[in-house]
Amino acid sequence: MSDTSSEPRRTVGVRDVAVLAGVSRQTVSRVLNDHPEVAVETRERVLAAMTELGYRMNNAARALGTRRSRTLGVLATDALHYGPSRSIAALEAAAREVGYWLSAAFADAGDADAVIAAVDHLVMQGVEGIVVVAPHAHTLDALDELRIGVPVVTLHAADRGARGLSVDQAAGARLAVAALADAGHTRIAHLAGPADWLEAESRTQGFADELAARGLAAGPVFEGDWTAGSGYAAVDAVRKSGVTAVFAANDQMALGLLGGLHEAGLSVPGDISVVGFDDTPDAAYYWPKLTTVRQDFSELARRAVAAVLADSAGASASDLPPVAPVLVTRDSVAPPRV
């Protein structure tokens, strides 16, 4: 007897499923495409045959027959940072919930040609729409010059056009400042994100607006780069400024700030209170546990997928307000020492 274990297995096709289920290939195709005019018993028989044979749907072949790839594109820049990476993961989950897959393309935010090439790549993949996770103004400027041909929705850039969706960044910053002011702080600094990020700009504006609304003096603003290292590097400037509290524009910078303040012999929140932004999974385990602003990336992703699919189907997606952020109160805020 010959050993056939190393022989390649033939790919199971629609015809094999049809034979086992005792239906036509057209019926199998209708089941694959969720056609409403298939009897429940027939659908179950076809699905059982697929399972028994180990059938895997070929999306490329399906697209040829239906002109629908059931694939959405994601154009991303700076995907290694927490916000963009978390957004991409949330988009993948939201797409799967409605039977879609993602095809991702990454580009250097500062390279317009790379952005255009990434869009071309996605369109050539036959995506039905594109979600842009690119929090830089110059990335969106490059997209403004293109005729893409499929629906496009942007995340984290709601102020840049009708098809933008975001968490309300300015409102989140105001929550952070309010938490510090309500604890009695009047000298509050902001450790900001990079100036070329739209989210950093919105958080800085929210910081200033909340101080002004409370009649407090404008606080110093120190620019970081989203990393813990930049938070650590800001410690000397924070100490010399004489503030009693800091709103850090993300949790990673807050982490570096906490470590640097501890090394400098300062207590948090005894000497200086700190509030972050994002509510990363690690924030509850910082020392002290970090008070921060939570973004609902999952809700934002669901809205983005729904919006791009509505446009793809020729419908008009209703305008949605920004997703509301939430303050998560932990241990890093206390009244200032008298």
In short:
With 338 residues, the chain is α/β, with parallel strands linked by helices. The chain is built from 13 helices and eleven strands.
Number of distinct helices: 13
Main sheet characteristics: 5 strands, parallel
Q: Mean pLDDT score, rounded? A: 86
Strand percent estimate? 5-15%
Low-confidence stretches: 1-8
Structural class estimated from helices and strands:
alpha/beta
What order do the SSEs take from the amino end to the carboxyl end, as H and E? Answer: HHHHEHEHEHEEHEHEHHEHEEHE
The N- and C-terminal alpha carbons lie at a distance of 90 Å
* DSSP E strands, number: 11
Question: How does this structure look, described?
Answer:
The chain is α/β, with parallel strands linked by helices and 338 residues long. It has 13 helices and 11 strands. The protein has helices at residues 14-21, 25-32, 40-53, 59-66, 82-97, 112-124, 137-144, 169-182, 198-213, 228-233, 235-241, 251-263, 297-312; strands at residues 71-76, 101-106, 130-133, 152-155, 164-165, 188-192, 221-223, 245-248, 273-275, 292-294, 326-328. The model is unreliable at 1-8 (pLDDT under 50).
Name a few traits of the molecule.
single chain; 338 residues; alpha/beta; 5-stranded parallel β-sheet; 4-stranded parallel β-sheet; 13 helices; 13% strand; disordered N terminus
Topology:
Blueprint: H1 14-21, H2 25-32, H3 40-53, H4 59-66, E1 71-76, H5 82-97, E2 101-106, H6 112-124, E3 130-133, H7 137-144, E4 152-155, E5 164-165, H8 169-182, E6 188-192, H9 198-213, E7 221-223, H10 228-233, H11 235-241, E8 245-248, H12 251-263, E9 273-275, E10 292-294, H13 297-312, E11 326-328
Parallel strand pairs: 1-2, 1-3, 3-4, 4-5, 6-7, 6-8, 8-9
Antiparallel strand pairs: 10-11
Helix pairs in contact: 1-2, 1-3, 5-13, 6-7, 8-9
